[in-house]
Write a structure and sequence with these properties.
The protein is an alpha/beta fold and 352 residues long. It has 14 helices and ten strands. It has a six-stranded mixed sheet, sandwiched between helices. It has a four-stranded parallel sheet with strand order 5-4-3-6, sandwiched between helices. The longest helix has 16 residues. It is globular, with a radius of gyration of 20 Å.
Length: 352
């Protein structure tokens, strides 16, 4: 992503990089044919370091910590942001303190421990993790890199907007589907489009920005449907997609502004729909998406059926992470059979 260094904050000498950015924009013709979308792409952020788009924002934030002399950082996270912070902090030689829900995906917990982070598991949601981190931070001397509580993560994430424009020959698509938990990726892309227009790289036309959430945690969708400028706390938040289990995004008003200003929409899908869509994406295109990314496929099907989008529209779906980071979620769809069960199906192979 550092091809865009002139529009990013850290000095070249401060950059901490693990090779993040410039992820593939994959033309998905077979999936498009099944859904009725003639020009469909998937931007696969699962191929970033630590296997999610969070690498972009944390690479930029930790680079600025190096520049500013910060030696201790803390973050509340639903999983992937914690992994990315731990990795980049390790690369920079900075102490990291991480607060995650106790039921965080095992892959995220193991990553953070391997990177040498100080991990605290909290009974509750990411909002509870944020409260604990905020309470302890001042006396511990931690710099808080919570979403939108510092200005640099959004700068890294905006490079998703620069990349999609460059990869599409500076003609942004007609619609962008984005899995929306905290929503900073969408906020960053919206910022990037404004910057690129001022630079003369693109025109004034914007993609329809489509925020996709889980039915079990859809504060932005509810606010959009109620025509409210901000969301309300979503009680009883639950979903298999850990990154979407954010009951009250701090930047909700910015997400809603991008959606409304672009003529986009906000839509929720069920956990069952997201898993079905993820299997369809994997089996037709060879892209094993995180459940969050799979929501975009399910949402696209609905918006094509409703007529909100047309078959000829140029559409980009963002897969924000690798499906390999979510064994617990995907195992609900593909439980491993026992040896006796497999033998009954005639599939047991025993060594001689």
């Amino acid at each position: 992503m550092w091809r865009y260094a002139p529009v990013l904050p850290p000095a070249d000498t401060s950059i901490v990089s693990l090779g993040e950015g410039w992820t593939p924009l994959v033309r998905t013709r077979r999936l498009g044919a099944r859904l009725g979308a003639e020009a469909l792409w998937v931007k696969d952020e699962g191929l970033n370091p630590t296997a999610s788009f969070k690498a972009r924002g944390l690479a930029c934030a930790i680079s600025m910590c190096v520049e500013l002399g910060i030696r201790k950082v803390a973050i509340p996270s639903a999983g992937n942001a914690a992994s990315a912070l731990a990795a980049y902090a390790a690369a920079a030689g900075i102490e990291s303190y991480i607060f995650m829900p106790r039921d965080v995906p095992q892959a995220n917990y193991l990553e953070c421990k391997a990177y040498g982070a100080n991990v605290t598991l909290v009974d509750g949601l990411i909002s509870d993790c944020a409260r604990v981190a905020a309470e302890r931070g001042p006396q511990e001397g931690w710099f808080d890199v919570s979403t939108l509580k510092e200005p640099y993560r959004i700068e890294g994430k905006k490079t998703m907007g620069y990349e999609v424009a460059e990869q599409m020959d500076w003609e942004p698509p007609d619609a962008i589907f984005y899995p929306t938990g905290g929503g900073v990726g969408m906020i960053g892309m919206w910022k990037a489009f404004d910057e690129m227009e001022k630079l003369g790289w693109i025109g004034s036309r914007r993609p329809k920005m489509i925020a996709v959430q889980a039915e079990g945690c859809a504060p932005v969708v509810r606010a959009f449907e109620e025509n409210e400028p901000r969301s309300r706390f979503f009680d009883g938040a639950h979903t298999l997609a850990a990154g979407l289990r954010v009951p009250k995004p701090l930047g909700d008003f910015l997400v809603l502004d991008a959606v409304r200003s672009s003529g986009g929409t906000a839509i929720a899908v069920s956990d069952e729909e997201m898993l079905d869509a993820g299997v369809e994406l994997a089996s037709t295109e060879g892209i094993f998406a995180a459940p969050e990314g799979a929501t975009c496929v399910a949402a696209l099907r609905k918006l094509l059926a409703s007529g909100f989008l047309k078959p000829a529209d140029r559409i980009v779906l963002y897969n924000t992470g690798s499906g390999l980071k979510y064994p617990e979620a995907w195992s609900t769809r593909f439980p491993r059979t026992t040896a006796s069960e497999q033998d009954k199906l005639g599939g047991l192979i025993t060594p001689r």
